Fold:
Amino acid sequence: MRQIVTREAITNAGLALLLLVVPLAASVMDEPFYVTLATRITVLALAAVGLNIALGLGGLVSFGHAAFFGLGGYAAGILATHAFNAQPLFLGIQATTSMPAIWLVAVVACGLVALPVGAISLRTSGVYFIMITLAFAQMIYYFAISWPAYGGQDGLSIYVRNTFPGANTAQPLPFFLICYGLLLLGLALFWALGGSRFGAALHTARQNATRLAAVGIAPFKIRLTAFAISAMVTGLAGALFADLNRFASPSMLSWHMSGELIVLIILGGKGRLFGPVAGAMLYVLFEYALGGITERWQLFLGLILLGVVLFARGGLMGLVAGKERYG
Amino acid sequence: MAEPVLEIRDLRKSFGALKATDGVSLHLVSGEIHALIGPNGAGKSTLIHQISGSLTPDSGTIHFLGQDMAGLDMAARAQLGLARSFQTSSLAQEFSALRNVMLAVQARQGSSLRFFRPVMRDRSLAEPAMAMLERVGLADRAHVPAEELSHGERRQLEIAIALALGPKAFLLDEPMAGMGPEGSKNLTGFLDALRREAPILLVEHDMDAVFALADRVSVLVYGRIIATGKVDEIRNDPEVRRAYLGEPA
Structure:
């Protein structure tokens, strides 16, 4: 029968614990930089967990998820700016600096954008799907940098980090804990989706869409739903990322960001629950450790990526926990 | 005669200059096995693709249970009860045999937008799926991933998936292909009983199976049906013998 304590489960628990204990210890030792580093890992991991729903479960290689990451970021930035300047948004609606409200706006906005973008993109597949998602994301990117009201190319500063009831978000540790909690929620969502009836259909859409249609389930509907959920999770991470940096940057919308999210997933193991977490840890630590030595740290990251693609298709999680079994 | 379950009228499909389906009309009535035979390249699979909805005909109509199928995609037709098996097995390769059948049970229940309840602990999926695997004799291989099953076992799994859909008609595209004499014999016995559940449009190269099973046979050559009739009539039809059974007239 099914083993409960698998190597993968142990690895997942270890990674989750490590990501929690290091910033706690750093906070005790008064090293806020490491707390911020852990927060960066956490937020990027959440963004990649979102993409992993489309890419890992559904086999939809979206090269446009930066659009949702950036949209979430701008939702945080725009609301904070309006609230800071005490300008109503439109029709007299007041802006807010409350994180839960901002998250809701970010998630809903991403869902609303993802539905039409997905509906058009999912008419294609393979390399065309990759290109059309990229094209949509670039459209949104150029729109953002040419819209002076919200910073244009300069981006949008958030002067004071947005607020969360009962927490001092200006301190690194409380903000990290908020992000960490949301990452766990995102992972729980990914896990529940993957094991549900919807997940069974989505897994089949990835493996063999003809088979899915032949049993009477339209692949398009399943994929579109997955794409929208995926975008919403990535959008939530975007809102956190803007608050982390106190800055909604157009670079969040650029295609480099889309590529970075894909890289995180490939490094960690696509379709694996903790793949994005492992990938984000490796990526950010690399950036930090090698970034201090050479500006060309991405060259070394490229070599590692090459190694993973050639010799360890399952990424880090595949190396540690073996091939994924679906039962 | 009762209303046909499946009725095809004057179906045409061309690929460039090639007339793959050239004015085909045929029907399938309740309780029968209607075999479709013909040499390689006669357009049998093209016809099955049009009936199941993976290809759109240039002209002609397909009615299933009295309903026009024009504009309905493969998933919609399967939902209405038109189950097909594939000439080359088409399975979710990473899923076990059981999960492949569970997906069909889930599709029949019409419940794929449920996001949270875990399927692996859902008896309303696993039990009917297991029953179907038992019917085709694959129960002891239930937990083996489809990609590790033998060729013959995959054919059996295709049948189990089609059964789990509780269909109103079966489209079976060469179910015996590559099965070996023992497997073919077992499947022949199985299909013989299956026609009482739902009629079968059977594309098959194994002539022993066709002549043992079919109530009626249609012979397709170069996209046209050159003869339709009972097994004996087809066996003795001079045109069929010349065109297909490989004997001089």
Summary: The radius of gyration of chain A is 19 Å.
